[in-house]
Amino acid sequence: MYGKGLRPLSIATCLTLTAAFALVFFYAPLDADQGFIQKIFYVHVPMAIVALGGFVAGAIMAVQHLRTGDRRWDLRSYVAIHLSLVLGVGVLVTGAIWAKAAWGHWWVWDEPTLVSFLIVFLLYATYQPLRFSIEDPERQARYASVFAVTAGAFVPLNFLAVRLAEQLTHPRVLGATGGSMPGEFRFTFLVALAGMVLLFVTLWKYEMASKHATAQLRSLRRKLGGEEALIPAGRSAAPSAGLPARPTAD
Amino acid sequence: MSTWGALVRKELLLEIRARESVPAMALFSVTTYVVFHFGLDRSSLDGDLASGVLWVTLLFAAMLGVNRLFVADREQGGFDGFLLAPVDRSALLLAKAASLFAYLVAVELVAIPAFAFLLLGPSPAQLLPELVGILLLANAGIAVIGTLASALAIQTTARDLIAPLVALPLLIPVVIAGARATTPLMLESGAEAVPAKWAAVLGLYDLVFALLAYAVFDFLLED
Amino acid sequence: MPALPLDEAGKYVAGAYIVFVALILVYVAIMAVKLARIERELEELNELADQRTPGGTA
Q1: How many domains does chain C have?
Q2: Are A36 and C3 an interchain contact pair (Cβ–Cβ within 8 Å)?
Q3: I need a surface site. Which of A29, A132, A217, A227 has the fewest CB within 10 A?
């Protein structure tokens, strides 16, 4: 049951995010050199951390799928990766806004974390096309899990490699406050990060509950009306929660 | 070991007889140099520009090979025959990766001299022997990742598109390390030492992905 | 690095936060559509079940 606990979770998310935004605008002091622009940091960086965490979580769930063969793990992995992609779009857009405000260009290659994130995003953008192009659901799930594991291993390696590449040429331009964060910044950041983590978990459960409900509906429909009552499910990139849609004709 | 040996032998024999991938990849490299000449409007490259052009060309030529890697097995039923045999399945992974590695070496035997001839400013003699080492390390990474991407893509309906899309981001660290490593070799003012750091990065990357590919490859072959 | 004056910087910061909120709201909207579909299907299945109980054997 994915819906269980969703209410307290969403309330917690709401409260934490609201508190975070309040802290950002009323408590955290102005940054010395970037001024007000630095406030973007509190939405951009937590999103990035959570998105990357989501990709890694998707990889771990994919490992579970490969180990146990239980297709529910594939569904969990899919939802985690899908959500991280959505957050990833947010990271890139807010990163671009920050770059424009701080540096005058909509994109900067000097910021290794942003560049690494772009590479990871480009890789995961192939996840859904890959799934969609494999018709057999069982094989689709298996191959998607192999991809998720490979891509998940790639995430930390990629960040290391890009950071090594940029190290000697350019100093960090979009860093927090040039070095370690003093108390008020750190506290605000941690609350924002907590809010983002809660948001991810809430949305994940939300989507899992929705998919689970849809799968149960299909099963119920078949039980009540027999095979003819089923609306044929077209090709899809989303996993079918391990419940067979209908006897496949190949 | 002998399974692997037999498979590699089969791959190389097929390639030597059919001459599909390697000549195409080599020709593609040379043509790409011409395109770069016109695209960049430069007759002579050195330093980081030369390094970059070389690595980009090699990478895209490798994509051609990656696309073709499993095609024959898929179309002529080689997978089923292999799966029925009582052998360790990862032998197929090793064999395909080793063949791709061999193709890359063969292509580079043409592509590097062509590069020196067409576009490289400084004398090619200053590139050796470090270039060989870096290329071998990079080829290993491209071979492993290329084989994995190719195996992922072969069962899809859009395989020519999916394989490069998956492989290229995964290969970006290889390009980073390779290009940074060879830039000092191509300086107009004479070759400088290659930072050991980049060779280490390449080696580590190769190792991690080789282990990863070995672990997951079985799941791609199940049926 | 220049610190932009507050009125200019404010627009960028607002833009970034608006992007974040917009993403969440779009997501909620999509889930709302899915929920509506689930509701509709449940209604259909309920009718299907009603048809079966009078005449059929469970």
Answers
A1: 1
A2: yes
A3: A227
